[in-house]
Every structure is written in structure tokens, then in C-alpha cells.
Amino acid sequence: MMIEAFKEYHIEIEEINILDATDRVLAEAVVAKENVPEFNRSTVDGYAVKSSDTHGASESIPSFLTLLGEIKMGEEAKVKISSGEAIYVPTGGMIPEGTDAVIMIEYAEKLDDATLMVYRPQSVGENVILKGDDIKAGERIIEKGKKLTPQDIGVLAAIGASKINVYKRPRFFIISTGDELVDLDEELTMGKVRDINSYALYSLIIKLGGEISGSSIVRDDFELLRSSVENALEASDVVIISGGSSVGTRDYTSKVINSFKGKGVFVHGVSIKPGKPTIIGEGKGKVIFGLPGHPVSSIIIFKVFIEYFIKHLLNIKENINKTTAILDFNFPSSPGKETYQTVNIVERNGKNYAIPTFGKSGMITLLSKSDGYIVLKPHEEGILKGEEREVYLL
Amino acid sequence: MMIEAFKEYHIEIEEINILDATDRVLAEAVVAKENVPEFNRSTVDGYAVKSSDTHGASESIPSFLTLLGEIKMGEEAKVKISSGEAIYVPTGGMIPEGTDAVIMIEYAEKLDDATLMVYRPQSVGENVILKGDDIKAGERIIEKGKKLTPQDIGVLAAIGASKINVYKRPRFFIISTGDELVDLDEELTMGKVRDINSYALYSLIIKLGGEISGSSIVRDDFELLRSSVENALEASDVVIISGGSSVGTRDYTSKVINSFKGKGVFVHGVSIKPGKPTIIGEGKGKVIFGLPGHPVSSIIIFKVFIEYFIKHLLNIKENINKTTAILDFNFPSSPGKETYQTVNIVERNGKNYAIPTFGKSGMITLLSKSDGYIVLKPHEEGILKGEEREVYLL
């Protein structure tokens, strides 16, 4: 539903240097303009030969070839080799026209400067990477939506692509609501708590590859929240309203979202646990997420909804970071709700076990002490100790 | 041996804002200066009560309490509650002295503005987070060596820690050697290849949390390489000399390292496959790695040796990124060598299978098409299809 509502959404594209491209998301497929390698290349230190000249060669009856000198590393092999001839080539060097194999120095011996004895038959292509063997010019080598790894950067360098088109970093604006919130540099008086969510969300956004166009703490007041959201809609692609753990705040978060031109709130309260007070809406063409005030719920909802949304938006192909583990506990279901249970993973006898972590509602330490979480579908009647399940890593 | 040789090595510490701390490594344990929360806090919208006043309450025989109004969100609860009294508290609000539980609004009803009927008994502490329940002042909450996650940033915000001490990013200098190398902006003439390793290593260093203090491409020449390494030793913590796939280059890489004051080369050729020409040495108190010229070997050696070294240096506690998978193939061993086999992971019927990826020596696409690698120990006599093994993710 969320995806359907935002199918017109798009993130702009920018050209960047591949040195800045680690973890950026490719906005269009990359097609190789060069072959890799551009020439037939030796994979060993040895002698380039016509393989047919070595057939029947052995320790007792070597083949005798005329040695023509050497090809130097990084130089073009301009010589043409005829039957009965050989030439020295270093690892990575170009093998000349007329040759189709390289015999390793271990299996050959120089009788004199012009004569080589070869002790082993070579097959066609032995110890050679042919032109285009690694990458062919015209080949699509990396697909749109790829989050670029060091290996991908290596591939881009191999084909001489110094600049590529990636999606711009999605811009987020974080608004924390709540009369109880004080920022880190403020004095913590009785009844107040630190604004945790802005900081945790900031870090989640950075890890997701986004950037923060702004953030603010807003009192529980309709007009203040509305003007803050209006400002945020101008400055960003995604607006996150965090908090409002009480019923009243939730209500006017919806009212604020509905006050802008657009679809307004279309998801109000998701049936997952924890995470009830989650709102998804649209205003002025931008997506607005209303996240629960509890830090634990807030972080899990971010990972479940916002990460999913951004991955869809940027066509990201990568799987979610997860592993499997054997449950070390029986766990009851919450009928009709998707339940997210935080766990730790411990290794015993080479197998991973998931152990539940528990804490009272709203504890931030619950998450920092957990490795990940498991998901129970609404129809499941609980899970039994010994079952193997997927663990989504935090 | 490497660790022993560099036990005096250390990376400096710097103080940074927690907004910049994602994935940085904590250089000293963090001790909480505040309690979280600093007061007894309600986890629901409801009425703060003395639990003893609700004992025996039921739908048919409710307890009647005197309602004293409400505590507002973010305000100090200055009132003191006596037996027989109750007061409204929102989720996250402070509960007043004299109360020890909060009854949810669903289980209570206002008879008039001053009278509350309670339909359910409450136990001590029900729906309340006590002062310090989440974090106690004086508690060590994050250990030295922790690579900081969004959850950790949340915890730091919770205790009001806006600045923390982390290790400075280790500075790397990358030197690529080889007469065959041309940079991305140069023309690719016959016999030459693009400098792949500098770019792949650059990206690996960024992902590892390091920074690049410089890089250069150097011809196969002792004096040029020596002056380049001398410059690199001044500017960085770790010097990487990449390439020199031929025997000759390897030899004078060693000579260059040995020409500086220090221990010189103490690991020359590691018995792992691929990765033979790996060199580890010390010059002028800095660590110098000589990596093989083949991009695949180079990346794997980086992950195996350099990542390990940096993790040790910064006391990083995180495990290596790995998962388990069932081998879908028989694989022979290389006796006496540790063998690294690249694989893809595919899911079938909810289980992960590892399928080998093969390519000729030196192919960069081999790695970009693989998800990870498995390690065969030197003493292993190969592995059989159906065995479950750890896969180190690339």
C-alpha cells in the first residue's frame, strides 16, 4: 500500500567519482566500454608458445624451440611468433600474436640464449587470460540499484569508469515531539527525559545512506508542529515525526499531516508489536512517517518500514542483513499482530542460538544489548524451542 | 606474530560529537552520569496509585479513590499521594511520591471529577519504570572497542553524553607498483591494464573506518619505490604496497622495506591460496603490507590480514561478518595451505547453500559476483557436499 501510494516518487541522480562511491546506489546499469584485459595476457612467469609445438614433450623427450627474447611488463608484444618459436613473458604480460599458451618457467629450460627445451605439453589457452575473458566491452557489468561494494569499485576501475551515476542521498528531516523532551546540552529537570530518538534516527539514516537536512524538537502543540512539518516538507524527501507517545499527541500528528495538500494519513496504527502508534501519510507530495515515541519501537519501525521504503525507492537489490539461528526458548504469539522479539545470538558447538532479550517498554538498553530480532507472523501460534528462524540483525 | 610485532602500536584518540559517531570505535568505556529515567515513570496512560489501595478491586466491587487531578507530560510531580488517592499520568509522565503502580485508563472510571473507580488490583511496580531501571548512574554502559551502532548512539543520547572519545581513523597510504599499470584518466595502450587495486583497496579502507592519506602508482624501480614508501611512512599509520605480481618486483619490495630502520620484513610469503606473495614488515615504526597484484588475492588478503590487524589495534569486539551455509559441492584441499574459496549463497527451501564461484587467476569479476568465501584449513582433506560451513561475507 505504501509502495503503491508513492510510485511516482523519485530521487534525483548525480554523477560522482568512484572513490566516493562506496555504499552509494547505482542509478543506472554500467556497461563496459573496454575489454578486461584488452589483450591476451599471461597468468604466470613463463614462455609464450604455440601449444601445438609442445605436443608430445616430456622430461625424457623435450621439445626444442627457438627463444626470441622477452616481452617486458606493460609493453605491447609487437613480434609475431611462428611455429617452433617461443618468447619469455612475465605474469600479467601480453602474449604475442601466434601464441596460444604459456609454459611455466618450471617446465622449461634455456639450453642457450636462443634455445629453449620444453618438458611438458601445453593445451590451448593454458595459463592465458584471453582478451575480454574477465569483462567484454559492451557487457552490462553492474545493475541499477546495486549498493556498491569495494569489489564493484574494483570492477569500475578495471573498465576505466572514473565517474558513475548514483542516486542522491535521500534527505530526511527529523521532528521529535513531546513536552518531556530536552536536548543533550539542556539541563535535565524532574519529569523530563533526553531526546533519544532524534539521535538514534540520525544514525540509522546515515547507515541507510541518507542525509539529514534538519531536525527539531517541538512541544506538544498543533500550530508549532504544523509549522515545523511545513518547513520540513520543503527541505527534505522524507519527514519523520518521532514521539507523541500519548494518545493526544498521536491524534494531532494525524491532524497536522491531513492539513497539507495531498493524500493525508493513509496508514494509522500498524498491527505490529511493538509499534502500534505508527502513522504513514503524504503531504505536498512528500512521505511523512509518524513513529512511536518509545526508542525501541521507533528503531524497529524505522528498520521495518523506512528502510524498506528507501530500498524500494532506490531499486536496491541487496537483501536485508539477516542470519539464521535456533531458538533457545518457547515464545507465545500475539494473535492478529506481527510480533518483533529482540534476541541475542550465541554460538555453541558451532551452531547459532537465539536467546530472547527482555526489558520494560521504552528501554533503550534493550536494543543496544540485542543482536537482532525475529518476526512472528500474525497467524502463527507461537514458536517452539529448537526451531530454526531468521534473525534480522540490528 | 603480526600482533606480537606491533604490540606497541597505537592509534590516537579524538573527541567527537555523537552525531558523527556512527561506526566509529569507542576508545574508552562510557560510564553513565545520569540515571535513565531520572524519576519513576509511567509506561501507560492511567492513574498513579498506591497498589495496596487496589487490592481486592474487581468489576463487581471496585475500589473508590479520591482523584487529585493530573500530572502533565514533562512536569515534575510535586504532589504527594496518600492512601486512598489517585492522580492521572500520561505515558512517559512522572509518577508522584507515595505511588508505586499505574492503573491503565481501561480498568478505571471517573465517577465525577474527584472520584475514581478502579476495577482491577495492581501489583507493586505495575506499568512503572523505576528511576535507573534502564540505566543506573555510574554504570558502565558501553565498552571500549565498541563500533558504535544507532542503538549505541541512542544510549549515549539517553545519558546526555553529547561528546565521546573514539580512536582516530587509521591513516593508510596505498602504493600500486607495476610498469603495466595506468590510472583511470590515462589512455589504455596495448600491454597496459587499469590500476584496479588502488580503487578496491581505497573502498575497503573506507568501509573499515580508515582514511586514505595518499596514494600513488610507481614504476617497477627500486629507487622510485623506496622514495614513495619513505613518503608514505611519514604520512600514515599503515602502508600498503599493492602489486608486483612478478617475482622480481616481490623481491625488491622486500629490499625496500628492509632498507628502513626497523624490523624489516618478518612475514614473506604466506601459505594461503590465493595470496602467496604477501609480505608483512615494519619500517620506521610503521606497519607495511605487501599485497599480491591479483585483485582477488589482494582483496581477500586485505580482509584476512589488514582487517584483523586494525580490529586488534582498536580493540574492536565485533565479530567478522559471516553466516553459515550448506556446501553444495565437493571441494579438494591444497595440502599445507589455507585455501580461500569464493562462493555464492542461494536460498532453497529456507536453507542457505554455498555454491562455488570460479574464474581464472586475477579476474576481478570473480569477486564482484561472489557473496563470500569459505576457508579450508591446511590440515583438512577437502570438504564434502552437504557439510555446513561458515561463509565470510565479502
Question: Helices and strands in order, then pairings?
Answer:
Two copies of one chain form a homodimer.
Chain A: H1 2-5, E1 13-17, E2 30-31, E3 41-42, E4 46-49, E5 63-70, E6 85-89, E7 101-104, E8 108-112, E9 115-118, E10 128-129, E11 140-142, H2 150-158, E12 163-167, E13 171-177, E14 181-182, E15 193-194, H3 197-208, E16 211-218, H4 222-235, E17 238-243, H5 247-258, E18 264-268, E19 272-273, E20 279-283, E21 286-291, H6 295-313, E22 322-327, E23 338-348, E24 351-356, H7 365-368, E25 372-376, E26 388-393
Mean pLDDT over the residues of chain A: 89
Q: What value does the Rg of chain A take, in angstroms?
A: 31 Å
* Main sheet: strand order of chain A: 7-4-6-5-9-8
Uncertain residue segments of chain A: none
Summed up, the helix count of chain A is 7
Please give the largest β-sheet of chain A. 6 strands, mixed
* Count of spatially separate domains of chain A: 4
- Most extensive chain contact? A-B, 93 and 93 residues
Assign the CATH architecture of the largest domain in chain A: 3-Layer(aba) Sandwich
| Total E-strand runs of chain A | 26
Proportion of strand residues of chain A:
25-35%
Overall outline of chain A: elongated
CATH topology of the largest domain in chain A: Molybdenum Cofactor Biosythetic Enzyme, Chain A
- Cα distance spanning the termini of chain A: 25 Å
* Oligomeric nature of the chains: homodimer
